[in-house]
Amino acid sequence: MQWVWYALGGRLPERCREWVLHDTTSKTWVLRHAARSTVLVGPLMLVWLLLPAPLGLRLALVLMAALVGYFYSFVYMEEAAENRLAKHGYPRGTGKRVRREAHADEDEAARQRYIARYRTPQE
């Protein structure tokens, strides 16, 4: 039940603080964000699916709710993660910093490949 409260934007007890950091910075943080978004968008889609209307219209409404809901959810995904962390006592920017540090080696390798391919010395 705590997870549902957390997914709806609630604050977890202090003992869960480290878990919130893990939740917003792990490899699967995007999937975790999608699951939390489903808690918000799902009931609306269910209501529209149960409306007394032709099935095609109801499915179109559900699809539109999913597209709009998930679109805005993913557009503001990093900000939502930072807000969750701030709500649990972390300074703003912690999530982005932790995720960047976790992928620093991969990012540097990609940068080196880019330089090798596109930044060859001019003759």
TrEMBL record:
<dbReference type="Pfam" id="PF17240">
    <property type="entry name" value="DUF5313"/>
</dbReference>
<feature type="compositionally biased region" description="Basic residues">
    <location>
        <begin position="88"/>
        <end position="100"/>
    </location>
</feature>
<keyword id="KW-1133">Transmembrane helix</keyword>
<keyword id="KW-0472">Membrane</keyword>
<feature type="transmembrane region" description="Helical">
    <location>
        <begin position="57"/>
        <end position="77"/>
    </location>
</feature>
<keyword id="KW-0812">Transmembrane</keyword>
<dbReference type="InterPro" id="IPR035197">
    <property type="entry name" value="DUF5313"/>
</dbReference>
<protein>
    <recommendedName>
        <fullName>DUF5313 domain-containing protein</fullName>
    </recommendedName>
</protein>
<feature type="region of interest" description="Disordered">
    <location>
        <begin position="88"/>
        <end position="108"/>
    </location>
</feature>
